[in-house]
C-alpha cells in the first residue's frame, strides 16, 4: 500500500494518506409463497441453510402482537415446524411484540428485542425471524442490526404494504425526536418470505394500504402497471386476492429493481425517488400521532404532489384525474383535515415536512415528481403557494 500524494496542496502542512477501497456484495432472496410454517414445507429450513453451512441454526422468533392475535395457532405451528426440522434448526425463543407505529416510537420495544436476543445468547451466526407489519419489521430489524453489529434477519411480512415495499428493502429504523425513521440503519435482510396467507385477516385499512405504494411506484416508473391498478381498483377494494397478489408482486419487483440497479441502495446521495409523495405523507403521520396509516398518508401525499406536478406542467389534466380516480376507487383517501392545520405564524404545518425530508437525506432538497405517467423528474424546490393551491383543490372533492 503506497501513500497518495497531494500534489495540489501548496500548504507547508503535510499529510500522508492511504486510500482504501472496499467492495461488499449483498444478496438476499425475496420469495413469494404460502403456508410457510407448514411442517412439510421445507422452504424456511432451506432458506436458513442457503449458505450451505450444514449446521443447526439457532433462531429467535419475533411476532407482531396483532398477527399473534389474528392467528392464535401460529406459535404452535412454529414450534411444530422446528420440531419437524431438528437437524437444521433450533428454536431459541419466541417473543410477541407490539405492532403498528407504536412499536418503533422510541427505544422501549427496541430494548426489549435486544434483551431477548441477549437472554437467548444469540450470536452473529444466529437468526432473528420477524413476523409482522412494516413498522414492527423496521424496529426488529434495527435492533438485530446493532446487537453484535448485526445478526441475520429473516423477514416474514404480513401486510400488503410490508410485502410490496418496506419488508423487501434494506432499511431499518425507529421514530425519535418527533420524526419518522429518525434513527436507523441500512442492513439488508438475510431473506424475505412473503406468505400471502397472512393477508386474509388484515383490516380493510391495512389490506388497501399497500396499494398506495403500488400507485406511487407505478406513476413514476411503470405506465402499464399504472393502467393495471386503475383497471383493478374496484377489485382491490373488494379484496380480490388474485389482483392483490399480482399488485404486491409487481410493486415489490419494481422496488427491488431500483434498490439493486439504481446505483445508490444506501442513499449516499440526496435523491430518494421511491419516496414520491412521502415528504407530506410522513409529516401527516406524525401530525396525526400515527392514527393515519402509512398507506393512507402516502396516498394523500401522492395526490398533493400530483396536483403540484400538474400546476408546473409535468402532467396534464387527464393524468391527474386518473391518479385521483384510481386512488379513490380502491378506497384510499386524497384528503385529511390535518392538511388545513396552520402553525402560529400562519403557515401550513405540513410544509415542515419538506425540511424534515431534506434533513433526513442530507444535501439539498430533492423531491421526485411524475413527468408524465411512468416517468419521473426531480426538483430542488417546492413553491409553498402551489402546494397550498393543491390542497385547496383536493379540499373540494373531499367536501362533495
UniProtKB/TrEMBL annotation:
Pfam families: DHQ_synthase (PF01761), DHQS_C (PF24621). InterPro entries: Dehydroquinate_synthase, DHQS/DOIS_N, DHQS_C. Residues 210-337 form the 3-dehydroquinate synthase C-terminal domain. Its cofactor is NAD(+). Transmembrane segments: none annotated. CDD domains: DHQS-like (cd08198). Residues 96-207 form the 3-dehydroquinate synthase N-terminal domain. GO terms for molecular function: 3-dehydroquinate synthase activity. Keywords: Amino-acid biosynthesis, Aromatic amino acid biosynthesis, Lyase, NAD. One of its GO terms (biological process) is amino acid biosynthetic process. This is Uncharacterized protein. The lineage of its organism: unclassified sequences, metagenomes, ecological metagenomes.
Amino acid at each position: 500500500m503506497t501513500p497518495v500524494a497531494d500534489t495540489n496542496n501548496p500548504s507547508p502542512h503535510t499529510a500522508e494518506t492511504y486510500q482504501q477501497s472496499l467492495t461488499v456484495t449483498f444478496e438476499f432472496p425475496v420469495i413469494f409463497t404460502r403456508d410457510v410454517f407448514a411442517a412439510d414445507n421445507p422452504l424456511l429450513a432451506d432458506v436458513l441453510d442457503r449458505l450451505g453451512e450444514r449446521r443447526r441454526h439457532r433462531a429467535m422468533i419475533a411476532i407482531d402482537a396483532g398477527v399473534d392475535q389474528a392467528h392464535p395457532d401460529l406459535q404452535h405451528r412454529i414450534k411444530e415446524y422446528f420440531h419437524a426440522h431438528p437437524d437444521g434448526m433450533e428454536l431459541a425463543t419466541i417473543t410477541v411484540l407490539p405492532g403498528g407505529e407504536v412499536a418503533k416510537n422510541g427505544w422501549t420495544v427496541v430494548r426489549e428485542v435486544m434483551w431477548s436476543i441477549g437472554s437467548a445468547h444469540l450470536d452473529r451466526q444466529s437468526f432473528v425471524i420477524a413476523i409482522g407489519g412494516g413498522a414492527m419489521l423496521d424496529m426488529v430489524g434495527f435492533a438485530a442490526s446493532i446487537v453484535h453489529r448485526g445478526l441475520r434477519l429473516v423477514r416474514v411480512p404480513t401486510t400488503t404494504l410490508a410485502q410490496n415495499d418496506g419488508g423487501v428493502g434494506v432499511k431499518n429504523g425507529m421514530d425519535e425526536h418527533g420524526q419518522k425513521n429518525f434513527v436507523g440503519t441500512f442492513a439488508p435482510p438475510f431473506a424475505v418470505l412473503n406468505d400471502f396467507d397472512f393477508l386474509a385477516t388484515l383490516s380493510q385499512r391495512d389490506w388497501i394500504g399497500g396499494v398506495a405504494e403500488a400507485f406511487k411506484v407505478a406513476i413514476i416508473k411503470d405506465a402499464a402497471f399504472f393502467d393495471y391498478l386503475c383497471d383493478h381498483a374496484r377489485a382491490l377494494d373488494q379484496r380480490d386476492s388474485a389482483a392483490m397478489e399480482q399488485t404486491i408482486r409487481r410493486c415489490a419487483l419494481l422496488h427491488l429493481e431500483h434498490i439493486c440497479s439504481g446505483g445508490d441502495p444506501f442513499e449516499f446521495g440526496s435523491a430518494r425517488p421511491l419516496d414520491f409523495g412521502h415528504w407530506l405523507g410522513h409529516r401527516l403521520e406524525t401530525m396525526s400521532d400515527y392514527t393515519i396509516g402509512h398507506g393512507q398518508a402516502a396516498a394523500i401525499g401522492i395526490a398533493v404532489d400530483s396536483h403540484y406536478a400538474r400546476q408546473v406542467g409535468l402532467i396534464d389534466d387527464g393524468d391527474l384525474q386518473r391518479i385521483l380516480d384510481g386512488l379513490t376507487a380502491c378506497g384510499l383517501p386524497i384528503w385529511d383535515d390535518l392538511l388545513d392545520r396552520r402553525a402560529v405564524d400562519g403557515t401550513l404545518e405540513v410544509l415542515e415536512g419538506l425540511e424534515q425530508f431534506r434533513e433526513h437525506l442530507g444535501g439539498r432538497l430533492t423531491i421526485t415528481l411524475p413527468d408524465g405517467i411512468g416517468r419521473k423528474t426531480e426538483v430542488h424546490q417546492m413553491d409553498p403557494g402551489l402546494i397550498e393551491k393543491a390542497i385547496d383543490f383536493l379540499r373540494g372533492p373531499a367536501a362533495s
